[in-house]
From TrEMBL:
Keywords: Signal. Residues 1-20 form the signal peptide. This is ABC transporter substrate-binding protein. Residues 15-236 form the PBP domain. InterPro entries: ABC-Tungstate_binding, PBP_domain. It comes from Thermus scotoductus. SUPFAM superfamilies: Periplasmic binding protein-like II.
């Protein structure tokens, strides 16, 4: 497995036919270490080399549209549904789930620990004008954040609302530096955010906070057979055990779905 930084995309991907299977995935997947468990096993079993590009879901799907990648692993059901309808991606396999949560400084100036639901938690942040860092990058996490603000009846703006324009790990680092709140996926919070002193201030079972990761093939991709081979591997019990076994201090980062989707494309259950 090799990680390719986004800045080298046009040189390293589009112009290099000798590369292996090209997989675009989210920064939250990459930062979690999930691919470090899955891909070496796949590569040893098949001899297929996987080139990983970690970007937001929106950018991953744009790469798929341009055929710059052969497969994607993403987590934005609305965007995925649109891409499926347009034939940009195909053959979804729901790989894993975890949840989103609101994290922030230990002092919790907006008192979101006491909120009755996640929408009330966001309203408390807005009323207090407590610093909040948004991804601002059209990633799955950013789109989920915007959905929650919309459902809360709010349009966040002003000096308290910041945009990182970066991946999840970097956004958590910035939130810690600013003493700010942010929306994170569970895996990246446990691997990055908690180490930076951020607290899990709103983490509850809530359908609005479900986070599903789905693998898709890119039709007519340059490495279509290899992408299908990876799909078959991800559907195995061995892959499910590897997903389930990824833990931080005894806490699983993901729950394997084994192809059983919990969120439909379009965002509904």
């Amino acid at each position: 497995m090799r990680f390719i930084q986004a800045v080298w995309l046009l040189v390293a991907l589009a112009s290099s036919p000798g590369l292996g299977l090209r997989l675009a995935t989210t920064t939250s997947v990459y930062d979690s270490g999930l691919l470090d468990r899955l891909l070496p096993v796949f590569e040893r079993a098949t001899g297929v080399r996987v080139e990983v590009l970690a970007v937001g879901t929106g950018q991953a799907l744009r790469l798929a549209e341009r055929k710059d990648v052969d497969a994607v692993l993403v987590h934005a059901p609305d965007l995925e549904g649109e891409a499926l309808e347009r034939g940009i991606i195909a053959q979804p396999f729901c790989l894993a789930q975890n949840s989103f949560l609101l994290v922030g400084p230990k002092g919790d100036p907006a008192r979101i620990r006491e909120a009755g639901d996640v929408l009330e938690a966001l309203r408390r942040i807005a009323r207090a004008q407590a610093p909040f860092v948004s991804r601002g990058d059209r990633s799955g996490t950013h789109l989920k954040e915007l959905e929650l603000w919309r459902k809360a009846g709010l349009t966040p703006e002003g000096g308290w609302y910041l945009e990182s324009g970066a991946g999840m790990g970097q956004t958590l680092v910035l939130a810690a530096e600013k003493g700010a709140y942010t929306l994170s996926d569970l895996a990246t919070y446990l691997t990055v955010g908690r180490k930076r002193g951020l607290e899990a201030l709103y983490r509850r079972e809530d359908p609005l906070l479900l986070n599903q990761y789905t693998y898709y093939l890119v039709p007519q991709g340059a490495k279509a057979e290899e992408a299908e081979a990876l799909r078959r591997f991800l559907a195995t019990e061995e892959a499910a055990r590897l997903v389930e076994g990824l833990q931080v201090e005894g806490t699983p980062l993901f729950k394997p779905l084994r192809g059983r989707c919990i969120i439909s494309r379009g965002g509904g259950r």
